[in-house]
Design goal:
CATH architecture of the largest domain: 3-Layer(aba) Sandwich
Radius of gyration: 23 Å
Structural class: alpha/beta
Number of domains: 3
Distance between the termini: 38 Å
Shape: globular
CATH topology of the largest domain: Rossmann fold
Number of strands: 7
Strand order of the largest sheet: 4-5-6-3-7
CATH class of the largest domain: Alpha Beta
Order of helices and strands: EEHEHEHHHHEHEEHHHHHHH
Helix content: 40-55%
CATH superfamily of the largest domain: P-loop containing nucleotide triphosphate hydrolases
Amino acid sequence: MGPEPTRFGLGGRRLSPFVGRELELRFLLDRLERARAGLGQVVWIAGEPGVGKSRLLFEFRQRIEKLGVSCLEVRCASHGATIPYYLLHDLLRSAWELPEDPAEMAAAVRSRIDPLGVGDPEAADILAAWLGAEAELPAGLTPEGLRRRAFNILREVLLATAAGSSGCVLLLEDLHWVDEGSEAFLAELVDHLVASRLFIVFSARPGHVVRAVDRSFVSRLALPPLTRDDSTTLARAVLPAAASSGLLSRIVERAEGNPFFLEELLWAVGEGGTESVPETVTAALMARMDRLDPAQRRVLETAAVLGREVPHPVLTAMLADEADLSRLLDVLVRLEFLCHQPGPT
């Protein structure tokens, strides 16, 4: 047999071997089967930054895709923590591929919600208005009344989506950045979960207090650092075959079981062709960036100012004097500093 083909995921980034999380993956799949049997479930994945929460959920998504299970997913953003209902709005906009134009959104919401058979006859207009679209609302409806009816409709939408025999998975990442309004909705949703086919999985850093964790159908899954053996397995698969055992041992020791730090160290050392191991993940990233030419580095640093997701039109405006921007972006994608997302991002 030939070597295993390179896998890509997590925004197009090259994937290292999936090690040390097989038990956790089986746990998620077991809870999924309970939910599909009509016993709604919640799993809360807790772990330090870089410990592998996103990778575990990526592997889980690959499994449920093969099972034909519907999956709705969204990631909280640090800047969204103070924006009312940022998480819920982002979830619906991405899941339903809603247009940005408020004038077009109401019709798009109606086309999505009508087939679900939601009981509220004004559901489409209520939900569209709550999302910021132009929609006709009942006379005398207060902002609090709009919020309450929108919450009820959204709950019906999620439960109806999960009502089929395959069920539905709702993946929410980085819940430590959730806005207060969205978190209140999730706490209410849990109260209606027990007899549904909905499986909610969310990830958060340690220290985030999760509401409604005292239910029998809510499980906490803590991700510890990788063992030394698992770290060594991952390192052997990524490092060049000619790398010394001493170098491998120093990298594994320096990473302390954190997969993200381990991978950055491996790439920094592998790309640089050096036996020198960076002291920190920042140093590992800087070592890779130091090998960029000035134009590439300027583009990368400008993109970093814009945050995790970078709208192409904004980046183009900020680098208006850079005539070769498209080529530079292609280089940064190929070097895995950036990755393409659907749309102009």
